[in-house]
Write a structure and sequence with these properties.
Structural class: alpha/beta
Largest sheet: 5 strands, parallel
Order of helices and strands: HEHEHEHEHEHEEHEHEHH
Shape: globular
CATH topology of the largest domain: Rossmann fold
Radius of gyration: 19 Å
Oligomer: single chain
Strand content: 5-15%
CATH architecture of the largest domain: 3-Layer(aba) Sandwich
Bound molecules: phosphoric acid mono(formamide)ester
CATH class of the largest domain: Alpha Beta
Length: about 300
């Protein structure tokens, strides 16, 4: 039986800390100029049905460091353009003997369908508005590096929570590791059923980020919004942008995260995005190491199952 990474909601805290600890070890090794010991080669399918820069490239880079092959696949230019279903696509990749799938898709839950038909690990690289677990792992490693622990931190997730898979995965991870989670944003961009997510809702930025140790900004996802959810980008910026003036409400040493891609001057102003408070570049770097750890984690389970 294969081990998958489909949602942060499904992981135990011990599994999260195990992955984070492996990622930190990989980072120390690679940044220190070391190499990962050569292991059995694996072929990893990178299936991206939506655009990506950070996630796709970091899975490529993680696979390269681990000595694995990658096979790139996108909907455009494939037989899905002529009507082949996702199920038949997954079965095709299975019988072409790919050994793991990393999948980004616009439909929430699609990696679960992939896991049903694929004969190996499936890693969710972002599914619709549902989850983006490897982003949350990279964010957690970044917070750990800056703050030392996640337990007891106040983390404000600001902006378009409704359309954000990053917000959902982060909320689960941070809650499981003992942080206080707050969702901050306009009523129209916060989920109508926040009761299902671990966190408290704030509509006012100053109150929501008061004394926060971590301010996590989210991209306005215009492509997933229907008209009328936001009166104007300018109004959003005036009310919810993180800048020198608004960051004063947070704790003195507060750090600012943004998963990217950043709408510069909207969610965060240039000054904060390029300041020492900003962790944006660290989040990108750590994305590579958590993805190495995740590939390790899913394949280790498969190997243990084979030997049992
Ligand atoms: N944060 C993130 O998922 O970025 P990409 O869309 O560039 O992969």
């Amino acid at each position: 039986m294969s081990r998958h990474l489909l949602a942060m909601r499904l992981l135990e805290p011990t599994q999260i800390t195990e992955i984070l600890s492996t990622a930190a070890e990989y980072k120390e090794l690679i940044v220190g100029g070391g190499r990962v010991e050569r292991r059995n080669e694996k072929s990893v399918g990178l299936l991206f049905f939506e655009n990506s820069t950070r996630t796709r490239v970091s899975f490529e880079q993680a696979s390269h460091y681990l000595g694995y092959h990658t096979v790139n696949f996108s909907g455009a230019g494939s037989s899905m353009s002529t009507g082949e279903t996702l199920k038949d696509t997954i079965l095709t990749l299975r019988y072409e003997r790919l050994e793991a799938l990393v999948m980004r898709h616009q439909a929430s839950g699609s990696p679960v369908l992939a896991a049903r038909y694929f004969d190996g690990p499936v890693i969710n690289a972002g599914d619709g508005q549902h989850e983006h677990p490897t982003q949350a792992l990279g964010d957690a490693l970044t917070i750990l590096e800056r703050k030392g622990d996640i337990q007891g931190l106040r983390v404000a997730i600001v902006g378009d929570v409704e359309h954000s898979r990053v917000a959902r995965s982060n909320a689960w991870l941070l809650h499981k590791l003992g942080a206080e989670v707050r969702f901050v944003g306009p009523r129209t961009l916060l989920p109508s059923h926040t009761g299902k997510l671990p966190g408290t809702v704030y509509y006012d930025l100053a109150t929501g980020i008061a004394d926060a140790d971590v301010v996590m900004c989210l991209r306005l996802q215009r492509e997933r919004m229907s008209d009328g959810l936001l009166s104007s980008t300018g109004e959003y910026t005036r009310m919810y942008q993180i800048n020198r003036s608004t960051l004063r409400y947070a704790a003195a040493e507060a750090i600012v995260l943004h998963p990217g891609p950043l709408n510069r001057g909207v969610e965060v102003d240039d000054h904060i995005a390029d300041s020492d408070s900003s962790c944006i570049n660290d989040q990108v770097t750590n994305g590579v190491f958590v993805r190495m750890a995740v590939l390790d984690w899913v394949f280790r389970e498969a190997k243990e199952a084979q030997l049992a």
